[in-house]
Structures are given as C-alpha cells and as structure tokens.
Design goal:
alpha/beta; TIM Barrel; 7-stranded parallel beta sheet; 38% helix; binds NADP nicotinamide-adenine-dinucleotide phosphate
C-alpha cells in the first residue's frame, strides 16, 4: 500500500481505511466465517483504520470485529454512537447524554477494550441541546474511556461550535466524486488538520459501474472504483476514505487504489463530472 499516512489525534493511520458496515446485516448472521475472513484480510493488506458503529447490526458489527481482530494490534477501530435502529429501515438519532454514555459503555464491552480510540457522534440529535451531547463525549474522554472524539454529518457551523466543548479530531460526512455537498466542511477540515472520513466513497458502488469513470480508469489500467477512491485521496491530505465491501476481491481492488497516481489532466476531467453540491 502507498505509504501516505495521516495522524488522527496522535494515532497514525494509512489514509485508505475500511468501512465495516457491510460485514453484518440488521440481525447477526448464523455463519460469520466469510465476514471474519474479510475483516482479517483488511488487516493483512495493511489497512489500519476500520470504521464501525453500535447501530450496525445493533452491536453485531462490533462483536464481529472483536471476534476477527481482537486485540487489534496497531489497528484503530473507530466506532459511533447516537443512532438507534428500531427496525431495519429506521435510523433514529438519540443524543441524550445518559444514552450516549450507556452506548459507549456497550461499545467498550463488545469491542473488549478499556478505551475507544475514536468515538464518533453518529448524528446530532436535533431534540437535545448540542452542548449536552458534546458534554457527554467530553466526559467520556475525561474519564479515560474514549481517546478521541469525531462527529458525523455536521456543518462547518456545528463543527466550530463543537470545538468549544471538545477536541474534534475527525468528521465523517457523506462525500464522493458525484456528491460534494460537504465541500465547505472538507475545506474547513483541511485548513484545520481534522481528518475527513467520506462515507459512501464509491456512491454505494454506483461509481464502480460508471461507464465514464471506466473509460478514464482504463487509461490508467485501473477500475472505476479505484479511480473514484484515488480521486478522494488526492482531493485533500486529510481525507481517509472507508470503502465498504463484503467481498475479498473488491477489498483487494479498493486497497490497491491507494497506489494510483492521477495526473492534473485526470483530475480536471473528473472535477467536471459533477457540480459542487
Ligand atoms: N456516518 C454515517 O452516517 C455513515 C453512513 C453510511 C455508511 N457509513 C460508513 O461508510 C462505509 C462505506 O459506506 P458504504 O459501504 O455504504 O458505501 P460504499 O463504500 O460507497 O459502497 C459499498 C458498495 O459498493 C460495492 N463495492 C465495494 N467495492 C467495490 C468494487 N471495487 N467494485 C464494485 N463494487 C464495489 C459493495 O458491494 P460488495 O459488498 O459486493 O463489494 C457495496 O455494495 C460503511 O461501511 C460505514 O462504515 C457511515
């Protein structure tokens, strides 16, 4: 893997990470063998930043990572709290401080760690004062249960506000080549040295099937998915894409994207693909 690394807090990671969400469904699978093989292959390939959440499989995703990778030698497991899953189709924010604290305790147990390296607020709950949600996270840091705090789906204004209450080392917002609504957040993170973790980096796989991307990728001897990831990596030095897959073939392909160099001509053609926003 390309050696380009980034510091998230004082933790040093390769800039191409892995999103574990797709390793589990809403309910735990009876047979985890394949998912465990994928998780172990992630680490064998040199990926050392893995994103999960308590909401993925309502805990099953964190349990799977623990089964596959504990004690996580030199691998940063980033998890999230603050989103509930009353049913497979529902994602409902819950930012009450006592709930966030309990959720973090459960993450600690499932991941079998004394401290969570990176705990991200999955969603800001509009029904709870933002300062209270941040206060709960800051308290977890003060108690030594969480090393670093990140946020997800926030605006620049929210990020500025949050930093008055807690040190924010990462932001996880939806962003990819054809969805650039959070361009201003990425620019703010770049200027401030905050890691920016774009979720759905290959647009739920849509980019992999794009003919236009496929044509440019072919010039580089690469695939459309790799091109999409390489564009993200070159967009800013603080970007850490977390492509998700349940397939070892796709995983290997995605990790190899870290070694792909795009010329200014490629970047100009890709930049023209979608207007900002
Ligand atoms: N913060 C948030 O609110 C939030 C929300 C959603 C997701 N996330 C995080 O972001 C991560 C990534 O999101 P995502 O998995 O939804 O989207 P994604 O990474 O953009 O796309 C994943 C989809 O693309 C397919 N795929 C992956 N690599 C491919 C390749 N090389 N060629 C062809 N198809 C490929 C996968 O299918 P196969 O399994 O068949 O490879 C899967 O259907 C998640 O795992 C999760 O950790 C965060």
């Amino acid at each position: 893997m390309n050696n380009t690394r980034l510091k998230i807090g004082e933790l040093d990671v390769h800039r191409l990470g892995f999103g574990a969400m797709r390793l589990t469904g809403y309910r735990p699978a009876a047979d985890r063998t394949e998912a465990i093989q994928v998780a172990r292959r992630v680490v064998e390939l040199g990926v050392d930043f893995i994103d999960t959440a308590d909401a993925y499989g309502i805990g099953a995703n964190e349990e799977l990572l623990a089964q596959a990778l504990h004690p996580y030698d030199n691998v940063l497991i980033a998890t999230k709290v603050g989103h509930t899953r009353p049913s497979p189709a529902e994602w409902t924010p819950c930012g009450r401080p006592e709930y966030l604290r309990q959720a973090a305790e459960q993450c600690l147990r499932r991941l079998q760690v004394e401290r969570i390296d990176l705990l991200q607020l999955h969603r800001v709950d509009p029904a709870v004062p933002f300062a209270d949600q941040l206060g709960a996270l800051a308290r977890l840091v003060a108690e030594g249960k969480v090393r670093h705090v990140g946020l997800s789906e926030v605006s620049v204004q929210q990020l500025r506000e949050a930093r008055q209450y807690v040190d924010v080392v990462s932001v996880q917002n939806r962003y990819n080549l054809t969805d650039r609504r959070h361009e201003d957040v990425l620019d703010y993170c770049t200027a401030e040295g905050i890691a920016f973790i774009p979720w759905v980096p290959i647009a739920h796989g849509e980019h992999a099937g794009s003919q236009l991307l496929g044509m440019i990728a072919a010039e580089l001897g690469a695939t459309a998915a790799q091109l999409s990831l390489a564009w993200l990596l070159q967009r800013s030095p603080v970007v850490v894409p977390i492509p998700g897959t349940s397939s070892i073939g796709h995983l290997e392909e995605n990790v190899a994207a870290a070694g792909l160099e795009l010329t200014s001509d490629h970047l100009a053609r890709l930049a023209a693909l979608s207007p900002v926003g």
